[in-house]
Amino acid sequence: MDPRARYPPGIGNGRGGNPNYYGRGPPPSQHQQHQHQHQQPPHPHHHQYVQRQPQPQQTPHNSQHQQWLRRNQIAAEAAGASEQKAPPVADGIDSSSQDWKAQLKLPPQDTRYRTEDVTATKGNEFEDYFLKRELLMGIYEKGFERPSPIQEESIPIALTGSDILARAKNGTGKTAAFCIPALEKIDQDKNAIQVVILVPTRELALQTSQVCKELGKHLKIQVMVTTGGTSLKDDIVRLYQPVHLLVGTPGRILDLTKKGVCVLKNCSMLVMDEADKLLSPEFQPSIQELIRYLPSNRQILMFSATFPVTVKEFKDKYLPKPYVINLMDELTLKGITQFYAFVEERQKVHCLNTLFSKLQINQSIIFCNSVNRVELLAKKITELGYSCFYIHAKMLQDHRNRVFHDFRNGACRNLVCTDLFTRGIDIQAVNVVINFDFPKSAETYLHRVSH
């Protein structure tokens, strides 16, 4: 039997399940899902188990006694029949250990071509890690069938509390590799920030928080995202409400911590995604200061595709004995086909127009090295008759959020951007990446082409 047959693919909107269910049993049936906001009608046999007081009647005492004996006999027979026909029901949840998977609403299968970077696994299943059933439900409804290689390596080690230094290619499932153990280790009954996930950009913060919310949709875990460029007052108000997992950029989280609003004394896990960028001179001082607010027994997980010298210095200071994972036998994903064209500056736009007419493009991302060139190129592409958005760091945050959201939802075919958009952004429809300007470093090129 195909081992994947245990998790049959299904068609659904990926939003199934009862958001009010937090038990360890299987999810409710579809009918019960639609009725979860209303009071459930009693089981047809339940009323027979209630010891009712007999109503005053004009019958003799012996006759009345016989009626109650008969009623109890009927109740016993019904109870036996009920036990044979269906398993016991508690809190509206079918307690059969195998039915919960069949009731999940799975999203459409991801039909993208998968390379060895994600298919060369050890054959583990998510259930091998003894995760909460509610978390497993979110994992499968997110569309994950089996853990990818980086998830196989990271999840069991992270669950032991060990520090991790992980190097894996973009597009191989790094986000879930740290989100899943983070969600598993959170005590949802404890009103405190227990996990902080640091990312270098606002767009990646929004994307990561959304992944956490989707994976934890059946848990009572409260996820908050905070980044610079948004209302500080709103973040302060939100932090007075329960927050278990905080995703954000280092500067904003440090600011809230210094103000005494973001309390990290119970934060047992710090995750650094795109760690090489976070340890650049722009962010490293904030991160080192932020670590001082964490308990001494905190766990640090560092993930990235590239690890320059700055990462080693930080590791030696804060992660003395980390578990090292290196899945980078080569830099780029195996399925990426790369072409190089040497053209003069004045020929670039014409060359780009030729590419648009020749290639089968679902969506494309086009990188430039400066804000000014991003806007000029986006204008040129629009004049050529192609739909085009642009995004860069000098735009208002609300505008950036709208562009990111609309492009991700397929409202536009082409996006021109700076290297702001290189870090960890996963958009399924993107099948062409164009470096309109040559990247400034090998690391930048790697992050650009690994969408």
From TrEMBL:
Q: What is the E.C. number?
A: 3.6.4.13
Primary location: cytoplasm
Residue stretches making up the Helicase C-terminal domain = 335-451
Supply the alphabetized keyword list. Answer: ATP-binding, Cytoplasm, Helicase, Hydrolase, Nucleotide-binding, RNA-binding
Looking up Gene3D superfamilies in the UniProt record yields: P-loop containing nucleotide triphosphate hydrolases
The record's catalysed reaction(s) read: ATP + H2O = ADP + phosphate + H(+)
Superkingdom per UniProt: Eukaryota
Q: Which SMART domains match?
A: DEXDc, HELICc
Q: Where does it localize?
A: Cytoplasm, P-body
Q: Pfam families under this entry?
A: DEAD, Helicase_C
Name the coiled-coil region(s): none
Where is the short sequence motif Q motif located?
Answer: 124-152
- Family stated for the protein in its record: Belongs to the DEAD box helicase family. DDX6/DHH1 subfamily.
GO molecular function list: ATP binding; hydrolase activity; RNA binding; RNA helicase activity
What is this protein for, i.e. what is its function?
Answer: ATP-dependent RNA helicase involved in mRNA turnover, and more specifically in mRNA decapping.
Q: Which organism is it from?
A: Oryza barthii
Asked whether the keyword Nucleotide-binding is assigned, the reply is yes
Domain annotation DEAD-box RNA helicase Q: ranges: 124-152
What name goes with this protein? RNA helicase
Q: Which PANTHER family match?
A: DEAD-BOX ATP-DEPENDENT RNA HELICASE 50
Q: Which InterPro entries match?
A: DEAD/DEAH_box_helicase_dom, Helicase_ATP-bd, Helicase_C-like, P-loop_NTPase, RNA-helicase_DEAD-box_CS, RNA_helicase_DEAD_Q_motif
A GO term from the CC aspect: P-body
In which residue ranges is the amino acid composition biased (Low complexity)? Answer: 50-61, 75-86
The record's region (Disordered) falls at 1-109
Occurrences of domain Helicase ATP-binding (ranges): 155-325
- From start to end residue, where is composition biased (Basic residues)? 33-49
